[in-house]
TrEMBL record:
InterPro entries: G-protein_gamma-like_dom, GGL_sf, Ste18_fungal. G proteins are composed of 3 units, alpha, beta and gamma. It comes from the Eukaryota. GO terms for biological process: G protein-coupled receptor signaling pathway; pheromone-dependent signal transduction involved in conjugation with cellular fusion. It comes from Ephemerocybe angulata. The keyword Cytoplasm does not apply. GO terms for cellular component: heterotrimeric G-protein complex. Belongs to the G protein gamma family. Keywords: Lipoprotein, Membrane, Methylation, Palmitate, Prenylation, Transducer. It is a peripheral membrane protein. It is found in: Membrane. This is Guanine nucleotide-binding protein subunit gamma. GO terms for molecular function: G-protein beta-subunit binding. Residues 11-65 form the G protein gamma domain.
Length: 82
């Protein structure tokens, strides 16, 4: 007689975990893949076609004076546009 008939045995638990893991692996395998060279080319194309809205370090909007102990507040640390 089994004292706990409703509880699964260890082998059944292991089998269920393996089946679930196998299912996740099959889902990963079915996911569409892109070659690294294609993804890189796509990223380069996007960067060339899309305007960057952040100011560049050479623009006047980027000039600032850091106020930390590591950067004393002198004019030698400001960034100026050429």
């Amino acid at each position: 007689m089994n004292s706990r008939p409703h509880k699964q045995s260890m082998s059944e638990l292991k089998l269920r975990r393996l089946v679930e893991h196998n299912q996740r692996l099959r889902e990963d395998l079915a996911r569409p893949r892109v070659k690294v060279s294609e993804a890189s080319a796509s990223l380069i194309r996007y960067c060339k076609q899309t305007k960057d809205h952040l100011p560049s370090p050479h623009s006047a909007a980027f000039a600032f004076v850091p106020t930390t102990p590591f950067f004393p507040s002198t004019n030698q640390h400001t960034l100026e546009s050429p």
